Amino acid sequence: MKSIGEITNLVQIKKNTRNSYEYQAYGNRLCEELCDPTKRTLFIKLAKNEDRNLLEIARLHALSNEKNPTKGKIFMWKLSQLKKSIKEKK
């Protein structure tokens, strides 16, 4: 049986130097999924400050529109709509 160190050396798992915190990893994943690398810092800031449930709903809505190439814009639109609906409920 091989030790964990030997297995990781075989697979050559590298630590992602961009992500020190979980919200950074989530923001980078959003950036990659929505195909909008120019707004990486915006997605990281949203992941840090906004409600994760709202971000997930907006992400799923943007990814469900496969024909539209501007998934980042759809994500931001849906997020603003969700925030407005929450404010109206209060």
CA-atom Rg in angstroms: 17 Å
Mean pLDDT: 86
Distance between the termini: 59 Å
Listing every helix as H and every strand as E from the N terminus to the C terminus, the arrangement reads: HHHHH
* Principal-axes shape call: elongated
Record field, number of beta strands: 0
Query: Main beta sheet: strand number and arrangement?
Result: none
Strand content: under 5%
Total of DSSP H or I helical runs spanning 4+ residues: 5
**Low-confidence runs of at least 5 consecutive residues:** none
Into how many domains do the coordinates divide? 1
Helix share of residues? 55-70%
Q: What class, by secondary structure content?
A: mainly alpha
What does this structure look like?
With 90 residues, the protein is mainly α. The protein has one domain. Helices cover 69% and strands 0% of the residues. It is built from five helices and no strands. Helix 2 crosses helix 3. The longest helix has 19 residues. The radius of gyration is 17 Å and the shape is elongated. It starts with a helix and ends with a helix.
